[in-house]
Design brief:
The complex is a heterodimer of chains A (430) and B (532).
Chain A (H helix, E strand, L loop, with lengths): L2 H12 L2 H9 L17 E7 L3 E6 L4 H11 L3 E8 L6 H4 L8 E3 L2 E6 L20 H18 L5 E5 L4 E6 L2 H4 L3 H11 L2 E5 L2 E4 L7 H22 L5 H8 L5 H11 L5 H22 L3 H23 L5 H5 L5 E2 L14 E2 L15 H10 L2 H7 L9 H33 L6
Antiparallel strand pairs in A: 1-2, 1-3, 3-4, 3-10, 5-7, 6-7, 6-11, 8-9
Helix pairs in contact in A: 1-3, 1-14, 2-3, 5-8, 8-12, 10-11, 11-12
Chain B lengths: L1 H8 L6 H5 L31 H23 L8 H11 L5 H18 L4 H21 L2 H10 L9 H17 L3 H8 L8 E5 L4 H5 L4 E3 L2 E5 L3 H31 L5 H7 L25 H8 L2 H13 L4 H14 L3 H12 L5 H7 L1 H7 L14 H6 L11 H4 L2 H10 L4 H12 L3 H13 L10 H19 L5 H7 L11 H12 L16
Antiparallel strand pairs in B: 1-3, 2-3
The chains are: A alpha+beta (430), B mainly alpha (532).
């Protein structure tokens, strides 16, 4: 059975419709008197159907309608778009009218792909992903998570495996959903320390004295580079990669000194330690050789900066900026199944990002097998939610514990507050 | 006149800033009362009548300033380095005898330019960019008490940081200052010599420019903005309001004003916007004649007339039979701008990509993209060929070849690429030096000169303009080489074409501006004294 054939079963028995609806309705489920009952209906979904046919501007009244559409049409991919000012299915009626048809709300999203790290990966290229390159993604998750929470004050964030070779991040705070395109661009740029390649080396927005956010990122990345990336990727055992690393050193003298020290060393981590030693010795010598303390310190910093450059060039998150910049950019929904790999886009707990195994991700096939091997009694005990007996339950639990439960609590509190304010308002009916 | 400026300000009535600009006291209007601040959010229309000559002259003077600002940026100045020069431009061109006169000129010229630059996305973007830089510079010229007064008047009350907050954030504030190279400030903060009141705590949404460049401390969604950065706080609402107003103005202009004023003001307004951007390639009529170029012509044209960015993309495409998405956009839209029709474009891309995307694979994966560029798919938008600014601003990732080679190439590869292009050796060096100094467009102009052995007077600001200038130069050469008698020779010898039809006064004056490169025209504005 191909992936596509399994999708019908997947959507009817495994896909967590309720959780998806609960998330995307943000409490506007029509049950609360203060909620906006039309909210979910104004959200765009885009289905990719068999044969790469894009069907944009789908919208649904509620969880039931969405579940039915998924079952009936069996999309190979679901993309989530913005919430518009009107129901996107009826957009034609509003286009050209005074209010027009335009997006009004959208989660802030980020997309990181391992493809963009091909120049610093030794284990494979393009669509390849494995435990050896995963640390690069895990580091990206850590940096984004810390920045979004500490600097921007966002709370409702989740990360999801994109099904093949990367990670998506969704920021769902109300404040994030209401950002303008310009503000989205600004946040993306704030994280964009890595700015592409130029003249054979990475262009990095680093200086001798770093912004606190960059400093925090570097501390984390230095550990990740030394403890995870280097041992896994064995970068310095590869001649081409070693050359690329040496290119960041400020002088030929240093390069020669490092090469000399590398003779006979057969391990990347040891080679790196040797390089650090040479650079630090040089920095110290420069500092002491300078009579003015300020200038000496500056010279030391300037020399040490190449270590920072190397670490960040290899590990700093490389974001696909375009995805984050626009409110109406579509992004694949969590819990989709990648049509080629069959892997489910499962949420990733940022706390356990390092331990996530991209090769062990549940596939639609493995989940259906688990479902089939259940005794009928066990299946019956789970009732409608048969997926609870499969690995899907771990994925959904992660989604809940990392994200959905606290979101729901906040939404509820917000609605209660609205109701309280409304009740407290004096009425004229006396 | 009334309708006219009303169209210019029509956005004002709806946006919050308009309400902000209420006069403080009742008796100010007479002019004898307390002096108004010498800076405006342009929330209110100018009152009274304006002579048509004044209308045009004011606008031209303001354009000289804006063009000057644009030139500075092309030369590589950043906003924070332009302060003095912008102030100088302003005083040179926008002066008037009295304070009231000056304020009136400022407001009138601003609204006229709103009309002139509201009509296309490119024009709007240009105007917003220059006006914001101008506004920032003028705000910075205000003395601190006037800055505060202005913010109050515009209802932008920002609260200074409290003592406890400040103590808590001190080290990080010092680190941010140091990261911007302001070591003295940084040390002063660490030594406790800076008052908490020197910082403002605002939601990060209000200072996207500072966030984007990491020039501000962020904590839990708050941006800690220093006193010196207050201009960012006011530029933001200014930009938002102007952007909104221009869109509304564009609608009104097309629907109501342009037809009504067809004989009187419309020609002036339209000629005002024709300059300063170079040719407007967003207008399909200004592009190459569709069908004048075929897929078969491209290899020859690459050698003769393509700018380096397009040459290198063609090279990559031809060798690897593939370009990534951004590259396909930049190169494909450029080809469209040359006048390559859709069918020819499809033929071209299909042939070039055949080895990696044969037949059906091309149809499935790339055909949509080519048709999309021509506005035949998706939003059906007729995409505009990229300008130099846009190309320079893009950052190619691994394996991508778009962007500006003068920015992305190393010196050696740039030198090699230009030599392959048969640019004269002296000009190659000139271009490499200019590129290294960050003057990418000037470098490109040097390469153009080295390839065509003549001076490039107009500068390069668009790859399609590079191409057009090149064709003009090459055709001129052929004309004189052939020694063609009569009409052809006369054509080649004729001065550069002026816009078709009789040149009205506005056009002549505009050419003055262009020719004199912003120099003071005779009979220009009086010297201005500065207001405190």
């Amino acid at each position: 059975m191909g992936v596509q054939d399994m999708m019908k079963l997947y959507y009817s028995r495994l896909f967590p419709h309720q959780e998806m609806y609960k998330w995307l309705a943000y409490g506007n489920d029509g049950k609360h008197p203060r909620s906006d009952a039309g909210y979910f209906q104004r959200r765009e979904f885009c289905f990719t159907l068999d044969g790469d046919i894009f069907v944009r501007y789908q919208s649904f009244k509620d969880a039931g309608e969405m579940a039915q559409a998924l079952k009936d049409r069996c999309p190979s991919k679901i993309d989530i778009g913005p919430v518009y000012n009107v129901d996107p299915q009826r957009r034609a009626a509003y286009q050209g009218s005074g209010q027009g048809f335009s997006p009004v709300e959208r989660e802030l999203v980020f997309d990181i792909d391992l493809t963009d790290y091909d120049d610093v990966r030794t284990c494979g290229k393009e669509g390849h992903i494995c435990g050896k390159c995963w640390p690069l993604m895990a580091a990206a998750i850590k940096i984004l998570d810390a920045g979004l929470r500490e600097d921007f004050g966002f709370h409702h964030i989740f990360f999801v495996f994109s099904g093949r070779r990367g990670v998506h991040c969704w920021v769902c705070d109300e404040r994030a959903r209401k950002l303008t395109d310009e503000q989205r661009s600004a946040i993306a740029s704030y994280f964009a320390v890595y700015k592409g390649q130029e003249r054979g080396v990475a262009r990095l927005a680093l200086s001798l004295d770093d912004h606190p956010a960059v400093k925090r990122a570097y501390e984390l990345l230095r550990d990740a580079f030394e403890q995870r990336v280097l041992p896994e990727q064995q970068l310095l055992m590869d001649e081409q990669q070693s050359q690329a690393v040496l290119a960041y050193l400020p002088t030929d003298g240093l390069r020669d000194a490092v090469r000399q020290r590398w003779r006979g060393v057969t391990d990347s981590v040891q080679k790196w330690e040797a390089l650090v030693e040479v650079v630090e010795e040089e920095a110290k010598a420069l500092e002491q050789g300078n009579r003015k303390a300020v200038e000496g310190q500056r010279a030391r910093k300037a020399t040490l900066k190449c270590l920072k450059d190397i670490v960040c060039a290899h590990t700093y998150p490389r974001l696909d900026m375009e995805v984050s910049k626009k409110m109406n950019h579509l992004l694949k929904a969590p819990f989709c199944v990648h049509p080629k790999t069959g892997k489910v886009c499962v949420p990733i707990d940022p706390e356990n990002a390092w331990e996530f195994d991209p090769e062990g991700v549940a596939t639609v096939g493995s989940l259906l097998n688990q479902l089939n091997s259940m005794t009928s009694g066990a299946a019956a005990a789970q009732g409608h939610e048969a997926w609870r007996a499969t690995d899907m339950s771990t994925a959904v639990d992660t989604f809940r514990s990392c994200f959905l439960d606290s979101l729901t609590a906040e939404v509820k509190a917000g609605l209660a507050e609205k109701a309280r304010v409304a009740a407290a308002e004096p009425t004229l009916a006396w | 006149m009334g309708t006219f400026l009303a169209a210019g300000a029509v956005g004002g009535a709806r946006r919050p800033l308009a309400e902000v600009q209420q006069p403080k006291g009742g008796g100010k209007a007479g002019g004898g009362g307390k002096a108004a601040l010498p800076l405006s959010m342009y929330g209110e229309l100018p009152e009274g009548e304006i002579a048509i000559e004044e209308f045009e002259r004011f606008a031209l003077d303001r354009l000289r300033v804006l063009k000057g600002i644009d030139d500075l940026k092309v030369k590589g100045f950043r906003p924070d380095q332009m302060q003095e020069k912008v102030t100088e431009l302003w005083e040179r061109h926008m002066g008037a005898a009295s304070r009231e006169e000056r304020a009136r000129k400022d407001v009138v010229s601003h609204f006229v330019l709103r009309l002139a630059y509201c009509r296309t996305e490119d024009l709007r973007r240009w105007l917003i960019a220059q006006e914001c830089d101008l506004f920032r510079a003028r705000f910075r010229e205000l003395i601190p008490s006037d800055q505060r007064a202005f913010m109050e008047e515009s209802q932008l009350p920002f609260r200074p940081l409290g003592q406890a907050d400040y103590e808590d954030a001190k080290d990080d504030l010092a680190a941010v200052a140091a990261s911007m190279g302001a070591h003295q400030v940084s040390n002063a903060i660490l030594r406790g010599e800076v008052q908490p009141g020197s910082f403002y705590k605002v939601p990060f949404e209000q200072v996207p420019d500072l966030v984007a460049t990491r020039r501000v401390l962020l904590r839990q969604g708050w941006a800690y903005v220093s006193k010196d950065q207050m201009s960012s706080l006011v530029v933001q609402p200014f930009r938002a309001a102007l952007s909104k107003a221009l869109v509304v103005t564009a609608r009104r202009w097309a629907a109501v004003v342009a037809p009504e004023e067809a004989d009187r003001l419309t020609p002036i307004i339209e000629s005002l916007s024709q300059r300063y951007l170079g040719p407007d390639f967003s207008d399909p009529e200004k592009r190459g004649v569709v069908g004048s170029v075929t897929a078969g012509d491209i290899p020859l044209l690459v050698r003769e007339s393509f700018p380096l960015c397009m040459v290198s993309m063609y090279g990559a495409l031809h060798e690897q039979h593939h370009l990534k998405h951004e590259g396909r956009m930049q190169f494909g839209l450029f080809l469209k701008g040359l006048g390559l029709p859709l069918e020819e474009a499809i033929r071209f891309w299909r042939t070039e990509m055949a080895p990696v995307a044969p037949g059906e694979k091309f149809d499935k994966q790339y055909l949509y993209n080519v048709r999309h560029n021509y506005g035949k798919e998706g939003q059906r938008k007729d995409y505009t060929p990229y300008t130099c600014m846009k190309i320079i601003g893009s950052t190619p990732g691994v394996g991508q070849v778009h962007g500006c080679p003068y920015k992305t190439f190393g010196q050696d590869s740039l030198r090699a690429a230009l030599s392959r292009l048969q640019v004269a050796p002296a000009k190659v060096e000139e271009a490499v030096l200019k590129a290294a100094a960050g003057h990418f467009q000037l470098a490109c102009a040097s390469a153009w000169e080295g390839k065509h052995s003549c001076a490039c007077d107009s500068g390069i600001n668009h790859p399609n303009q590079y191409f057009e200038e090149s064709r003009k130069a090459l055709e001129g050469e052929q004309g004189s080489d052939g020694g063609a008698p009569g009409a052809a020779a006369a054509g080649a010898g004729a001065p550069p074409k002026t816009p078709a039809g009789a040149a009205p006064a506005a056009t002549r004056q505009l050419q003055d501006v262009l020719g004199s490169n912003g120099a003071q025209p005779s009979g220009g504005a009086a010297k201005v004294q500065r207001t405190g």
